[in-house]
Amino acid sequence: MHQQIVMHRPPLLLTAKEAAQMLAVSERTLWTLTNCGQIRRLKIGAAVRYRFTDLQKYGDGLSSKETATDVASLPTER
Fold first, then answer.
1. Separation between Cα atoms, residue 49 and residue 19, nearest integer Å
2. What is the pLDDT, as a whole number, of residue 9?
3. CB-based contacts of 52: which residues, under 8 Å, 6+ apart?
4. What pLDDT score does 20 carry?
5. Are 11 and 22 a contacting pair, CB within 8 Å?
6. Which residue in 64, 56, 71 sits closest to 23, CA to CA?
7. For strand 47-51 and strand 42-44, is the pairing parallel, antiparallel, or unpaired?
8. How far apart are CA 21 and CA 73, in angstroms?
9. Which one, 15, 29, 47, 77, has the greatest CB density within 10 A?
10. CA 16, CA 8: separation in Å to the nearest integer?
11. Backbone φ, ψ for residue 49 (5° rounding)
12. Torsional sign, CA 62, 76, 34, 24
C-alpha cells in the first residue's frame, strides 16, 4: 500500500491575532512591539498582516533572559 506524506507549510501572512498567538503574547503587546519597530508589519489596503518569517526571526532573536512581555521599557510612537 502506498502512503503519501503531506507536508504542511505555514501561512506566509498572519493576522494580528494569529501573530500574537504564534508569539504567545497579547495583541496589545504585539502592537507595542510593532510600533517600536521590533516587529515589521505589512499594510494591504486597510488590513495589517505579519510575515511568518519575520515573527520567526523575532522569536529566534530573543535570548533566554529576554521575554516579549518586557515591552514596558520600549519607546512607543505617538
1. 8
2. 77
3. 10, 11, 12, 13, 14, 22
4. 96
5. no
6. 56
7. antiparallel
8. 22
9. 29
10. 21
11. -135, 155
12. positive
Per-residue cell: 31? 502592537
pLDDT value of position 76 = 56
Residue 76 CB partners (closer than 8 Å, separation 6+): 32, 35, 36
Residue matched to cell numbers 512607543: 76
Identify the pLDDT of residue 11: 83
Could you please report the per-residue DSSP string of 13-71?
A: EE-HHHHHHHHTS-HHHHHHHHHTTSS--EEETTEEEEEHHHHHHHHHH--TT--TTTT
The whole-angstrom separation of Cα 31 and Cα 68 is 12
